[in-house]
Specification:
single chain; mainly beta; 12% helix
């Protein structure tokens, strides 16, 4: 019985990976939303999320890829969840009055609860309950001293998914 071996390069050439959306390649990054927490910040537009620890870009198939905390990220996204190796996020428990994002990255747990009264943040190195929500010109702030600020699209009633979740994780990593 003889076996036919297909050269690896031929097989690899037949596989196509999703491409980065054209906007990410052809337009300058101009943030439409931003998460500020203490001295950390993460910003995003429709196709990118950026901060010193995160660089993610949407692909043509709707998935996202890039780096987070010096690790490669390749995740699929649907209306309520983000799934990939060592990376999950969910907003399935959210209601119109309360945004709830739960997830993990490399076994480290994240939970964000944002509503009209408070922001609850549970991250690997942070545990905050910020009482009070103040509407500002370009967003909202939580806490007595504005310890968490959501600007632009991040401060909307329905912030863009998954960008706001990625930005919250980046700001609290």
């Amino acid at each position: 019985m003889s076996r036919v071996l297909v050269p690896f390069a031929l097989v690899l050439g037949a596989c196509t990976l999703p491409q980065v959306v054209p906007e990410a390649l052809t337009t300058e990054f101009k943030a439409t939303g931003e998460v500020r927490a203490h001295e950390r910040t993460a910003s995003f537009d429709a196709v990118r999320v950026r901060n010193p620890k995160m660089n993610l870009t949407r692909r043509t198939d709707g998935s996202w890829g890039g780096t987070f905390a010096d690790h490669g990220v390749d995740v699929s996204v649907d209306e309520t969840s983000v799934r990939g190796a060592d990376f999950t996020l969910s907003r399935k428990d959210s209601t119109p009055e309360k945004l709830i994002i739960t997830g993990q990255f490399q076994g480290r747990i994240y939970r964000f609860e944002l509503d009209a009264q408070q922001a609850v943040v549970r991250a690997p190195n942070t545990s905050l309950t910020l009482l009070g929500r103040t509407v500002q010109d370009n967003g909202v702030a939580y806490g007595a001293r504005g310890e968490l600020v959501l600007l632009g699209d991040a401060g909307k009633e329905a912030p863009p998914w998954p960008q706001v979740a990625f930005a919250l994780m980046a700001a609290f990593n």
